[in-house]
Amino acid sequence: MITMTEIARLAHVSQPTVSRVLNGKPNVAPEIRERVLACAREHDYQFNVLAKSLQGSRTQLLGVLVSDVSNSFFADLSKQIEAEARKYGYSMILFNSDYNVQREREYLTVARQYRVDGVLAAPVQERGAEWRESVQKLDIPVVAVTQRVEGVDCVYVDHMEAGAMVAKHMAERGYGRFLYIGEEQSAKYAGFRSALADLGHGDRVECTASSDSRQLSAFLETWFRRPSYRTGIFTENDLCALRVLSILRELGVPVPRRAGVMGFDNISVGRYLNPGLSSVSQPIGLMAEQAVSRLLHRMDHPMGEPALELALPAELVVREST
Amino acid sequence: MITMTEIARLAHVSQPTVSRVLNGKPNVAPEIRERVLACAREHDYQFNVLAKSLQGSRTQLLGVLVSDVSNSFFADLSKQIEAEARKYGYSMILFNSDYNVQREREYLTVARQYRVDGVLAAPVQERGAEWRESVQKLDIPVVAVTQRVEGVDCVYVDHMEAGAMVAKHMAERGYGRFLYIGEEQSAKYAGFRSALADLGHGDRVECTASSDSRQLSAFLETWFRRPSYRTGIFTENDLCALRVLSILRELGVPVPRRAGVMGFDNISVGRYLNPGLSSVSQPIGLMAEQAVSRLLHRMDHPMGEPALELALPAELVVREST
DNA sequence: TTGTAGGCGTTATCAG
DNA sequence: CTGATAACGCCTACAA
Q: Which chain A positions have a beta carbon within 8 Å of B114's beta carbon?
């Protein structure tokens, strides 16, 4: 690939002059400008961004760290982030932590080795003082997306509040028993549970892990064998809700009559399901936009301002499953 | 971020010595090695990959160009590619062409500006002599994924053959009318159509575009209003199949009795649908593996060998929708 | 075993 | 308006 120095030689000018031309600086004689441009075009010159950023300028690279791009929610998020970053001339190195805290850390160091100008991370750990600290002593600005992290710039929806919204909706729909499928410590569950308590259903909530499909299936079979109230099921995300719906179908549990199912993330296929999946929608586009903009801002003001913790509104998307 | 030169100053040695230590080269006095390592650890030294690659060595960056990560197929593909690349110490810059040929070209030049060691591309254009040429005169190795491109390294499944498999399956299932939803020029359609012709259904195949949902809905309504044979519908991808299923449900067309639907890509949510979506599965993991390995190989042998055109087997995944 | 010198492709500074 | 020159962080000779 041709370099400025080579163009300089071909055009019989000095290399800095070539630099001036290619960067569109003023104060270059028109004829020289033309000569250089012609030569650059002819050889399809491309800037060497790496060499450029050696001078202390920006790399124009963003590190984007998600737990799993194959989850449509993160796929959508990555897409929006890429589109948003592109507006500012940024490209994105994508890292997949695979829900692995160890790899999350590794990728953070890889991102630094590439001298990315900043990192957008959807951190795995929900409540991580540890994560905050490891991020804070980093010399690269980091914005957390989807999760609140105290003392770190972050853009997120309030999971507590979302859980409460779900609880309220399910109570209104007349469900009398409740099930949360996901991690017991999650903020969604906390909000769900506490709102149900306020509604007088405090002792009718249970929680079970989602990880093992067979186990989950067995659990639901037992649950619905005993005659009981109509059950509102809230899952940690839509993928999990899909599995639940599929299990309920196998068990012959009618949805939404006997069981209501509400997911989280409102992935795009939800509306095409049968029954359509009710879900909590996060404003992905807005999150991406705000997160990128905050990150770029932070690059210029590394320490100055206090962390911005931006809570965005979640929205209930009610379809046939509740 | 601390540099080798600074460590050198702090440890009272020369910068190349620091380089030797940090790169684990032999012939360094143990005590100096310790001193340097201690200092590096203390200040959390990280290599500057960019500076490294200025010397002509590799950037350890791969450009990955897809049309739309938010399509689960490409999301899965990106994920597998990332995992595979990581094994060789490579990171991935992700580009989203958004099915836009113009942006595809732009991203190719951006990739070059970053001096990526190679590019994996799922090209938009199905039959592009133009694309081949633009890629061939690139100074960076490119491997096409998912599409065959003559004269360019590529890893793909044979869409013609896949289309034929679908035709055969649908004929066996007793459908007597056929519909392809997608671009008329696509290889899938060609294979579908020609196989149907061989089966004596040559004049019972139609094709309609998928782009406009309302239009598609109107088309299907008209189609199913007239009493006709049972119809086998083959869609260009699973996302499209989802929309079709949803429209058929609205129209009250029973699936698979009156209409059979088969998608393409076998995205993971397909099995959770109701009815479960029949589809053509592409071996994503294998494709990623082969494509990355081919790309790395090509880096070491830029021109030597002829292009590898690797056709991988597609597989019919039959569920309740056919 | 260690240090010095040069270069990778740029940009910035300063002199002419 | 243009060209030397130094610098960015690192590596690879080569010299001591």
A: 49-50, 61, 91
Highest CATH level, class, for A61-157+284-312: alpha beta
Q: Report the distance separating Cα A141 and Cα A117, nearest Å.
A: 7
CATH, range B4-54: 1.10.260
- Tell me whether domains B4-54 and B61-157+284-312 share a fold: no
Would you list the domain boundaries of chain B?
A: 4-54, 61-157+284-312, 159-281
Strand C closer than 7 Å to the CB of A307?
no
One-letter identity of residue A221: E
Q: Does A300 or B303 have the greater pLDDT score?
A: A300
Cross-chain Cβ contact A274/B273 below 8 Å: yes
Which residue minimizes Cα–C1' distance to C11? A55
pLDDT of A127 > 80? The answer is no
Instruction: Return phi, psi of residue B192, to 5°.
Output: -60, -50
> Residue B15 CA to nucleotide C5 C1', Å?
13
Q: For residues B205 and B193, give the distance between their C-alpha atoms in angstroms, rounded to a whole number.
A: 7
Query: Which residue of chain B has the CA closest to A137?
Result: B44
Question: For the purposes of burial, counting CB atoms within 10 Å of the CB of B98, is it exposed (0-12), middle (13-18) or buried (19 or more)?
Answer: middle
Does the pLDDT at position A263 exceed 90? yes
Question: What CATH number was assigned to the domain covering residues A159-281?
Answer: 3.40.50.2300
Nucleotide D11's nearest residue (CA vs C1') is B55
Nearest 5°: the CA angle A231, A233, A236 is: 165
The tens digit of pLDDT for each residue in B178-187 reads: 999 999 999 9
Q: Give the tens place of pLDDT for each residue, A269-278.
A: 999 998 999 9
- Separation of CA B3 and C1' D10 in angstroms? 9
Select the residue of A115, A242, A269 nearest B242 (Cβ to Cβ): A269
**Burial class for B166, CB neighbours closer than 10 Å (0-12, 13-18, 19+):** buried
Residues A18-37, mean pLDDT to the nearest whole number: 95
pTM over 0.85: yes
